[in-house]
Structure to design on (167 residues):
């Protein structure tokens, strides 16, 4: 499945975006299974189970791509549990990660090289840790049209969760 086949949805269909994206990684079927299970649990109102499942998905090892997309659901869950501060922090981290993914923010300031620059102080610690491994840096220099499309869809999710997360 290509990223281009994904689209934003409304209501309970919001969850299909993350599940569909997870299924695009056939090399890690455990990840897709966990993400889709978490989506189903969230739709069924099994908030604590969904939180544990998305946390487990976030711990899945990936070596060629970043594994940060479940963070949007963890932010949503924190907001549903009225844990506003944690929800906002996760939401801000996720938005930061999307901005790095899209090439809007760089991991290192004033540098073309990892070794010549200093850490971008505008990135949260979590954002930097998830996104700024040395092997990922060239990937952000020229994001594909498909990735930019996906980032746009997840930015819509950020807006939806931000609305949910208003105290």
């Amino acid at each position: 499945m290509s990223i281009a086949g994904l689209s934003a949805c409304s209501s309970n269909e919001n969850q299909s975006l993350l599940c569909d994206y997870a299924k695009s990684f056939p090399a890690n079927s455990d990840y897709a299974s966990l993400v889709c299970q978490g989506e189903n649990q969230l739709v069924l109102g099994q908030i604590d189970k969904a939180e544990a499942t998305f946390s487990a998905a976030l711990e899945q090892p990936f070596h060629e791509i970043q594994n940060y997309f479940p963070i949007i659901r963890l932010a949503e869950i924190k907001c549903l549990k009225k844990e506003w501060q944690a929800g906002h922090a996760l939401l801000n981290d996720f938005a930061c990660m999307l901005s790095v993914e899209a090439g809007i923010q760089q991991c290192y300031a004033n540098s073309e090289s990892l070794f010549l620059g200093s850490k971008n102080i505008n990135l949260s610690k979590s954002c930097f840790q998830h996104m700024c491994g040395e092997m990922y840096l060239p990937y952000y220099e020229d994001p594909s049209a498909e990735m930019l499309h996906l980032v746009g869809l997840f930015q819509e999710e950020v807006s939806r969760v931000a609305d949910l997360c208003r105290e």
Summary: The first helix runs from residue 14 to 23. The longest strand covers residues 108-109. Confidence is low (pLDDT under 50) at residues 1-12. The chain has eight helices and two strands.
